[in-house]
């Protein structure tokens, strides 16, 4: 909603304006009326109008002087002037001082007013977006770092209090609304059309998007009316009413954690963020052992076991109330790993973004895993023609991240260690440990290329729990460190 102040010394003209125009339907709200320019100027400081519709000729202070004084005092609202046919010279002056338009009182009709209001609204939106872009840069890294901190359950981050131009110091308050819209297009114009906020002529609007969820920050809003939306929305939207600048981190944490709850429970429409004492505690990630069991079941072609374990893991996530973003990251990571094992292209990230509930995301991951399983069979295994060596190769491929030794694998195929070692090299052309390292480093390279896992965790996942030893082996095979390799491939 854009706030409007009506300034006209004739009461019946103000009344006619109120009755002629479907203000709310057009996205405007009349927040005050005044009978002269002096009264209007005082009201402008109190109600922060976005648009002033003012008569030009008025007692005490006329409309031209009102506009000049408003500009001098830093009130950057739009003006539409009301004039009579014989006051055209005044109207010309008003346009020179920056009025958006003027209306002739004697021929005023609904169509003319609505056309003028639509023109003004487009101007207000353009000005807001331009102002927001000019103030965006100092906030980019803060939004990113703060989101990561909240998503991982770490201590809150606080905004600096500097008064630098374009920085945080110029703002007093911020309102927050977060939308779980999936792959639906969501723009600043989409948000403004909802009509839940009156940005005002000094506000800026920022958006931060991640995994199909967009959080909108309105800095110094003129008014916030979450129950006044003119539109129904198909997604859940969680809001926090305006808070002081240094309360941003805590307010956003409440919004995100409330959205996490809705992610599990299901809801749509506008929902106020839970109070701090109602927020559930949350673990940031799923245990690696759980993911490892899923992957192991897949590699061993145990479809029923994989389905059972996935369902159990999904239930565990719901019980522990893991943050939605962490769940989506887990699903996407597991999808990529299973696809790599099967030699398939992973499910597009957009499909996981589109999931607007925990249950839906679980079904999507299970469906992808079943599809990969159809492509992943013994035909993908290296065949030497020797049953015991082929059995050993399959075991290594499916358990490369376990503690594999010559003794354990020779026992698996019921052979003497020395005889098995010599036979393995004769049939494959490499030693057993050489082959194991090949498989592990290949898997590590794929994880470094396709995921953002820390280097130490990549090493653990491919069978090297000691990070330093993993880096040493990786360098021996590739000539570079894992971190250097990741930078070079991204």
Task: Summarize this entry quickly.
By secondary structure, the chain is an alpha/beta fold. It is built from 20 helices and twelve strands.
Molecular structure report:
The protein contains 20 helices and twelve strands. Strand 1, helix 1 and strand 2 form a beta-alpha-beta unit. It has 490 residues and is of the alpha/beta class. The strands form three sheets. A five-stranded parallel β-sheet has the order 2-1-3-4-5, with helices on both faces. The chain has four domains: 132 residues, Rossmann fold (3-Layer(aba) Sandwich), CATH 3.40.50.2300; 142 residues; 91 residues; 109 residues, Homeodomain-like (Arc Repressor Mutant, subunit A). The radius of gyration is 32 Å and the shape is elongated. About 1% of the residues have low confidence. This is Protein-glutamate methylesterase/protein-glutamine glutaminase. It is an enzyme of class 3 (hydrolase).
User: What is the C-alpha radius of gyration, as a whole number of Å?
Assistant: 32 Å
Structural class: alpha/beta
Per DSSP, the total helix count is 20
Strand order of the largest sheet: 2-1-3-4-5
The residue fraction in helices comes out at 40-55%
Mean pLDDT: 83
The overall strand count is 12
Oligomer: single chain
Number of domains: 4
| Percent in strands | 5-15%
Biggest sheet layout: 5 strands, parallel
Outline type: elongated
Q: Which regions have little confidence, pLDDT < 50, spanning 5+ residues? A: 161-166
GO molecular function, one term: protein-glutamine glutaminase activity
Domain HTH araC/xylS-type: 390-488
EC number: 3.5.1.44
Domain Response regulatory: 3-120
